[in-house]
Structures are given as C-alpha cells and as structure tokens.
Design goal:
By secondary structure, this protein is α/β, with parallel strands linked by helices. It has a single domain, classed as Alpha-Beta Barrel (TIM Barrel), CATH 3.20.20. The chain is built from 8 helices and 16 strands. It has an 8-stranded parallel β-sheet. Strand 7, helix 2 and strand 8 form a beta-alpha-beta unit. Helix 2 packs parallel to helix 3. The chain is globular, with a radius of gyration of 18 Å. The two termini are 25 Å apart. The model has no long low-confidence stretch (mean pLDDT 96). The protein binds 3,4-dihydroxybenzoic acid. The site of 3,4-dihydroxybenzoic acid has 13 residues, from loops.
Length: 306
C-alpha cells in the first residue's frame, strides 16, 4: 500500500503537506538547482510588499546554538515586479506557489493583495504575514491583537479573492484567540508560527550581532515552542487547518507537528544548512508513514490530542 500524502488546506488541495517556509526559499527558483520544486506541496515566497523594499542593514543573519537569528527586514522587489519578473520562472517549474505578503498598515496589505488578484492559477494561496518581528514598531505586530489581525485578514481576503492563510506569531499568549479572529475574518488556514523575538550580542565589540539589533530566532531551538503553539491552536480550533512551522529538519519532526494538529508543515531554517532539506523531509515523511502503516495523513493530524 502506498501512502497517500495528499492534504486539503481549506479549498486548496496539495499533493503532499511539505512546503518551504516563507523567507527561506527566495522569491523564485533559487532552490531549483537543489530540488524538484514541483514535487513539494507548495513553495512559499519570501513576503512581498506593495513596493520594492531594501531591507535592514547587514549583518542580517547570525548562527546560534541550535538555529539562527535573522533580521533581513523583508527585502523584496515589490509584488508587481515579482509577478512580472520572478513568478514566470517559478511557475515554469510546475510548482504550486503561495505568495506571502506583508505591510505596515491595513492599506498596504490591501494593495499587495489587490495586485495578487491578477496572479495566474499557479498562485494557489496568499499567506498573510501578520507576524514579522523585524518591523520598526515591534511592539505593534498585527498578530498580537485580535482586532488588528481581523482587520488585515478581512482586507486581504476581500482584495485578493483567493484563499488566504494567516501567518501568526508565537510571541503572544493570545495565539488561539488571534487564530480565531483570523478564521472569522476569512482565513482558510493559519500558519503557526513565525520566529521568536531574540537578540545576540558580540562580547568583543559589545554590540548586537545583527545590524538591526534584534531579530527573529528560528531552527531546532524553537521547535518545542512551535509544537506547543500548534497543539494549543488545534485544541481550541480542531476544524481550522493549521500549517505547522518551526525548526523542522527531519521527517520525524514533521510527524510531531502533524500529531500536534497540523495538516501541513513548512521547512525553513534547515534549508540554510542543506538546500535539499525540504525534499529530504518529504522523502523521510513518506518512508516514516510507510513504515508505520499510515495510509492517509488524516490518521496523524491531531492524534496527540486523542
Ligand atoms: C523577517 C521576516 C519574518 O517574518 C521573520 O520571521 C523573520 C525575518 C525579515 O525579513 O526580517
């Protein structure tokens, strides 16, 4: 019996649950030399703004004990230039594409989502990044407020007319409430979670290691936090599809997130050590399911709650 890894995220059918995480696979075919992008569940782009955006000062990335800390600052070409210049090559690989968007205001999210209304069908969903930790006003993430999340998700859903997923923040105890607000506002799924706010300081220079000072911590160091965040979200919203993300580097890591309640997962930081990591996770997950007589992913999703 071959395992059927197909998964449904709201109205979006994916052949398998393994995607790249936003910000770790570029905007286009950066990883295509290393893996078959079409074999993945989907490729999620780095978040796009309505305008081109230069990002934060270097250094932007620093390796930590079990992961990394980054403050790229959402560098990108702008959503229209991405559609015109970057999406065609990505589409030509046969990949299903999830376009991630960000903004500093509801209006900027609306504008980015509006541009994506004209995207080709290869763009199967829009991931609304409500939780970037590297904006100037970190104290005011959309995903730290039910009202702000609701406003931004409703605006994106109305403007793009496509399935929207809300990428949420682990940096708030309100996570299950925020997930509820996102779902009520029309998100078909929630991506749980984004990076943890962190900082690293160089003892020699006495200065922060990152040009922007603070950054987002990712990788295996945060996996137990992300698993808990998925578990908590599923406990309150068992019918809301959850895409689990945070430190996944192996097929067994992916299984952990599925058991916590995820219907799909994303691989991010592992790609920086091995650009084939997402493909490896898919292969290992397939083997794990075969070895454990799993015929369908639904046998795993949320099973830790039974
Ligand atoms: C960036 C954005 C994110 O959403 C994140 O989690 C980490 C970094 C950025 O581009 O700075």
């Amino acid at each position: 019996m071959t395992v059927n890894l197909a998964t449904r995220i709201g109205s979006v059918e994916l052949p398998n649950p393994v995607m790249t995480a936003s910000g770790t696979a570029g905007h286009s075919t950066e990883l295509a030399r290393h893996l078959d992008l079409a074999s993945l569940g989907a490729v999620v782009t780095k978040s796009l703004h309505i305008n081109p955006w230069a990002g934060n000062p270097a250094p932007r990335v620093h390796a930590t004990a079990a992961g990394m800390i980054n403050s790229v600052g959402l560098q990108g070409p702008g959503v229209q230039a991405w559609l015109d210049q970057e999406l065609p090559a990505l589409e030509a690989t046969g990949a299903r594409v999830v376009a991630s968007i960000w903004g500093r205001t509801v209006e900027e999210f609306t504008q980015a989502a509006q541009v994506l209304a004209a995207a080709p069908p290869s763009v199967v969903a829009v991931e609304v990044n409500t939780s970037c930790p590297n904006l100037e006003d970190r104290t005011n993430l959309f995903a730290h407020s039910t009202e702000a999340t609701s406003a931004v998700v409703a605006a994106a859903v109305a403007a793009t007319g496509r399935p929207c997923w809300a990428k949420l923040s682990p940096n708030t105890p309100l996570l299950p409430d925020v997930a509820d607000a996102a779902a009520q506002a029309g998100a078909q799924a929630v991506t749980v979670a984004n990076t943890l706010l962190g900082m690293a300081i160089d003892p020699e220079t006495r200065r922060p290691r990152l040009g922007a000072g603070r950054g987002g911590l990712s990788g295996p160091a945060i996996r137990p936090i992300a698993v808990r965040a998925v578990y908590d979200t599923f406990a309150v919203h068992p019918d809301l599809p959850i895409i689990g993300v945070g430190g996944i580097a192996t097929g067994e890591d992916a299984v952990e997130f599925l058991l916590a309640g995820a219907s799909a997962i994303q691989v991010g930081t592992a790609t920086f050590a091995n650009p084939r990591a997402t493909q490896n996770v898919l292969n290992e997950l397939t083997k794990w399911c075969t070895a454990h007589d799993i015929n369908h992913l639904s046998e795993l999703t949320g099973a830790a709650h039974d």
